[in-house]
Amino acid sequence: MRRVEKLHMEKGYVEHPIDGSLNVLEEIDRMRKEKNAVILAHYYQESEIQDIADFVGDSLDLSRKAASTDADIIVFAGVHFMAETAKILSPAKRVLLPDLMAGCSLADSCPPEDFAAFREKYPGHTVVSYVNTTAEIKALTDIVCTSANAVPIINSLPENEKIIFAPDRNLGNYINSLTGRNMVIWDGACHVHEEFSLERILELKAAHPDAKIIAHPECEKPVRIVADHIGSTSSLLRFTQEDSGNTYIVATESGILHQMKLARPEKHFIAAPPKDSTCACNDCKYMKLITVNKIYNTLKFEQPEITMDKSLMKQAEGSIRRMLEISNKLGL
Ligand code: 13P
Ligand code: SF4
Predict the structure, then answer these.
(1) Which domain holds residue 69?
(2) I want to staple 100 with a disulfide (CB 3.0 to 4.6 A). Which of 8, 27, 80, 123 is the partner?
(3) Counting atoms of ligand 2 from 1, which one is nearest the CA of 253?
(4) Binding-site residues, ligand 2, Cβ < 6 A
(5) Same domain, 96 and 110
(6) What tens digit of pLDDT does each residue of 161-211 get?
């Protein structure tokens, strides 16, 4: 059973029906003011959720917001590891996740017991883990990173440092190729980014020869090779704003297209298609579990709440703080 399913069952959260006559958006607004709550949303959320959020960002910026907000309640429109990170950084606040089943296939691909045994095989190695991991993995980690700061964080370590990188093999291989390091890489992956079809991307490129291909580093190597720009969600967004081009084939979760279109409505954005599917886009089924109605219920009933063992939070905090310290020092 997946970890989030276990948590969901343990908490016994029930869904509450919503009165159809309610103006849910107005109610969300009223409750967030009344309860001094803040809604943080990841770029992969549905457009309507991004539009009501107090802050929309990538996983690095969201962790910074969670650490600095003076709200009493954080409603996390994102996935479990993001809400967990927010709770670890703001333990005195109540952190709510509108659906506890919103997990992450990448975090699931790195079970703590297996990773602890893997780490034992490489004594003297510094462990750098992607933020897309459970708190238990962060507790076994020296420095956390996100896709926005992974390369500079690795570059900030001495050249002869022995490094284990977890859990994403694609991001790990990408970092090795850019930095010339030889990190030992955990064999994990994300179900969305591994699914993009190179063949279908190249067909799109043939139909739109002026289009630039932009890709998240969690994509497989063949997709990264044909990409004109590779970067985190915030980097891809920035690229489409600053670049002189007009059309982009976007190889990451399709939620990001909303901010791209808002910032540059005159440009044309095409969601890269997955393999073996008639669908034109690629959605993260966990991100898309969050809905406006669930956010309403979460604010109303103040659940489901993220809770963790205090000692686990303490053990996991150090590696996240280290990431924030290095990122601040490097001006990222
Ligand atoms: P970012 O670090 O770019 O926000 O990406 C998070 C994520 O889940 C990628 O799949
Ligand atoms: Fe996890 Fe992939 Fe979804 Fe990102 S897109 S939250 S890595 S499953």
Answers:
(1) 3-102+286-307
(2) 8
(3) 5
(4) 79, 104-106, 132, 190-192, 253, 284, 286-287
(5) no
(6) 999 999 999 999 999 999 999 999 999 999 999 999 999 999 999 999 999
